[in-house]
Specification:
The chain is an alpha/beta fold. The chain has a single domain (10-263, 300-410), classed as Glycosidases (TIM Barrel, Alpha-Beta Barrel), CATH 3.20.20.80. The protein is 42% helix and 16% strand. It contains 14 helices and 13 strands. It has helices at residues 18-21, 29-37, 52-62, 73-76, 85-100, 116-121, 131-146, 159-168, 182-206, 229-246, 281-294, 314-327, 346-362, 401-410, and strands at residues 2-5, 11-15, 66-70, 104-110, 152-157, 211-217, 220-223, 254-257, 261-266, 276-278, 331-335, 367-373, 412-415. Strands 2-3-4-5-6-8-11-12 form an 8-stranded parallel β-barrel, surrounded by 6 helices. The chain has a 3-stranded mixed sheet with strand order 7-9-10. It has a two-stranded antiparallel ribbon with strand order 1-13. α12 (314-327) packs parallel to α13 (346-362). The radius of gyration is 20 Å and the shape is globular. 49% of the residues are buried. Bound molecules: beta-D-glucopyranose. Beta-D-glucopyranose (BGC) is lined by residues 17, 20, 157-158, 161, 217, 257, 335, 373, 380, 388.
Amino acid sequence: MAIITFPKAFLWGASTAAYQVEGGNSGSALWAWEGRKGWEPSGEAAGSWERFDEDLACLKSLGLNAYRFSVEWSRVQPSPDRFDDGALGRYVGWARRLQAEGIRPFVCLHHFSEPSWLLELHPEGWLGDSVPARFLRFAERAAGALKDDVADWVTFNEPMVFLVGAYGMGHFPPGRRLLVRPRALAEAGARMARTHNEAYRLLHRLRPECRAGFTQNVAALDPARPGDEEAVESWDRFMHRDFMDAARGRMDYLGINYYTRIFVNRSPFSPLPGRAVPGYAELQAGVGRLGYRLLGGRRGEGEPTDMGWEVHPEGLGRVVSALWREHGLPILILENGIADASGLRREAYIRDHLASLASAMRQGAEVRGYFHWSLVDNYEWGSYRPRFGLHSRDRRPCPGAEFYGRVARSGEFEVHG
Ligand code: BGC
């Protein structure tokens, strides 16, 4: 039996996103999109817009000292020339209540959801030059209101996942399918990175000592077979590292969302950078079993989660160590979690990922915090079936919550062997 101990000042948090928990975000482009795609309606979601008291109670019952939530752009700016001070005031109130309870608010300014008016005015979205200025205007207003109560900012959540979803695979509005032209996506990524850099400057102008960054979804990548190393390298650059490189000097921390490992192979039929075939479950589902086999893809061996993702805790430590060596910036794990309707796999998932994180820290990586995805079950972009919550939507603790709370309170846990 060994004990793994985390530093005293370590941040133990949970993350949510406005559109996934608040409910009733009818001003978002996603609202009508749900119907067009035949998605399950998000409806009231977890009701967090009205039930912040209960969310706060969940955070307190777990003993967490940090909470990451996002501000819904379409609430704060319901039309191009109108800001809603009432909506902003509600977010300010949340930040104050969190602070009063010793829970540090981390506020994200863009978590996939954008106002419907934005795409009506600028149908080309992030493929064109108009959206960045619109986003910065919103960011200035939102951060201007929150700056006295919030010192930790996440400009963009998973920019590359968002771009591939919205402009590559047609999953999010505006529903473009340009995956066959990855250069267009890379250009949109560069534009978004420049916008992040502007937002970084803006946030520091508003509050010089604040800490700002973005969070990148980083999968652990392995070559499917010997000879696939170059495809791995190309995909890693395209999906993970190019954006981080473009934001060098404009990040106070490195934000990482880690869920899984994927195998990458090279196929002459792939239009992607390096002719890579990245083995995401979503891509496999998109091209079908046979298509995926024709592309030479390889699946992970472990028992998949309810999302079809391989559980691979070692990958978290590996990713953290590599990015620490590359950037030398403090690291925050801003999402990590498992879709598991039974809830029975969550404790082991958390334990094994924290052990992997701790081993990267022992080897020198400076990691400041771990935020579990998610505080409550929520809207998983089209469906309520995947359950990522430490609590159900009626705020009952799920299996695994008790364990996470114990770790957060004590800063340590036992491992066998
Ligand atoms: C996103 C969340 C999502 C989670 C689980 C992340 O990619 O930031 O919005 O719910 O993963 O899929």
